[in-house]
Amino acid sequence: MLITEQVRQRILQAAAEAQAKGLFPAIATPEVQVERPSKEEHGDFACSLPLKLARAVRMNPMEIARRLVPMVPLGEEMEKVEAAPPGFLNIFLRESWLQRQVDAIVEAGPAYSNVDAGQGHRVQVEFVSVNPTGPVHVGHTRGAVLGSTLANVLKAAGYQVTREYYINDAGNQMELFYASLYARYLQAVGQDAQLPNGGYQGAYLVDEAKEIVAAHGDRFAKMSREQAIREVGELGLRRMLEVIRQDLAAIGVEFDQWFSEKGLFESSQYQRTVELLRQGGHLAEREGAIWFVSTALGEDKDNVMVRSNGLPTYFASDAAYHYNKFAVRGFDRVINIWGADHQGHVPRLKAVVGALGLEPSRLTVIIAQMVALKRGNERVKASKRKGEIVTLRDLVAEVGPDACRFFFLARSPESQMEFDLELAQKQSQENPVYYVQYAHARIAGILRNAEEQGLDFRRGDVALLRAPEEMALIRKLVLLPELVQSVADTLQPHHLPHYATELATAFHWFYDHCRVITDDPALTSARLKLVEASGVILARSLELMGVSAPQRM
């Protein structure tokens, strides 16, 4: 059980005992929340239960707090509980318990951070899902980093996680892509051809066409237009998916499943979904089109599912896709990470999930806001490829995968962000990822030095770790399991880079004020064990973010 949960349970126990003894009237106890106080002098945890009880029991919250204090069982973890104005319980952890966590971290290794909140429940995280009509760009990259990090944390929290990429390989956009690539192919073999109206103009299609010519010559130019577009398009789709795979792999993003939209139609799951909605009375035919009557479910307007020309909309495919996620593959929970341009799509998707007889609360959609690049004080608008947005490949080539991941995680997904390319490349403490990685490299260097000197620190006595800097560092180390639990609950992974930065600061502070290898062998062993524990937790926090933990810098 996490230490915060232990504290919460003991405060609940104290409240029940106080009411049983008539110290204040018996009422339904409100939710007990245990939080980290902003000031160290207020203890390790704070609880506002007395403030919540005050109105109902008609007592001064400070008096409630004072009556609760002696009722809280301390156990081996808690040193004391104090009443603090205007009605808080401040909880202080026992120094001996904190010291023992150093041994626990060294013994458990990276698994120390794991929790069992998920209890094996199956969660699908669907993210990126870029139309395979072009390379991944910076805007997509934020969702890629967010999704892969959430998947890491959910796995550490005890969930069975499936990382999925939804391939939008059906519909009008793909038809335009195929026709555009075919036009570029014809141009590459020396024929006069024009891009279709609204077609894709990116220079990458010129490159793709040249590669197809190099591999297949002009044989597609001798086919009927319809067959040639289909075959060139299928080649282009496979090649573009491979480019997307490679670009994402460069920043450590990989998927367990690549799910084809086209497969929904080939397997009749789309037809099954439409039939279920029709049987439930959720569809209506108007002006030759089929509409999902979402106004009957509280939405502002109805939504077209099948156009008057008989072609399904993107919304119809999405309905079938989510029926597949829940009803066919049986995920307990689904998390979608979408770009800001899809925000308006969320309510109608929730509505159609409910109309299919599924529980909408099992679906969570996270919207990742836009990203702006800057270099110093100047905004970056174009990549090296004239007229195109900056690609993921361009970004990784300039700043590297670690800075790319760390910076994208540093802000909450709902906030717009600026990515400072100059800062991401600095090798100084100004650059947060460099600062954190340097702390890990310093730890690795200390441990290498100890091994070279033949120092045995695995038997170090953690009871010797009493200096304020040592205890402050330990207090940071024990937070990681709590953070994993919190991120799994809130789906807010931007707390991870902030935690890693604070942990690095605590380690640097310890290192600057506490000599590790001293003339006292016992103290040296104890401090080396603390250094090893710090390396375990710092490396694990970086691993959860998908950022490397260098041994040297």
Overview features:
20 helices, alpha/beta, four-stranded antiparallel β-sheet, Gyrase A, domain 2, 553 residues
From the spread of the alpha carbons, the general shape counts as: flat
**CATH C-level of the largest domain:** Alpha Beta
Structural class: alpha/beta
Question: What is the number of domains?
Answer: 4
The average pLDDT score comes to 94
From the coordinates shown, what is the CATH architecture of the largest domain?
A: 3-Layer(aba) Sandwich
**Main sheet summary:** 5 strands, parallel
**Total number of beta strands:** 15
Main β-sheet, spatial strand arrangement: 7-6-5-11-12
Tell me the CATH superfamily of the largest domain: HUPs
CATH topology of the largest domain: Rossmann fold
Distance between the amino and carboxyl termini: 37 Å
What portion of residues is helical?
Answer: 40-55%
Please indicate the percent range of residues in DSSP E strands (runs of 2 or more): 5-15%
How does the SSE layout of this entry go?
Elements (H helix, E strand, L loop, with lengths): L2 H18 L13 E2 L9 E3 L1 H9 L3 H8 L9 E7 L3 E6 L1 H14 L13 E5 L11 H19 L3 E8 L4 H17 L14 H14 L8 H25 L7 E4 H6 L2 H11 L3 E4 L2 E4 L10 E4 L7 H15 L4 E7 L6 H10 L7 E6 L2 E5 L2 E3 L11 H8 L1 H9 L7 E4 H5 L6 H21 L15 H10 L1 H12 L4 H19 L7 H25 L8
Helix pairs in contact: 2-3, 4-17, 4-20, 5-14, 5-18, 6-7, 6-8, 10-11, 13-14, 16-19, 16-20, 17-19, 17-20, 19-20
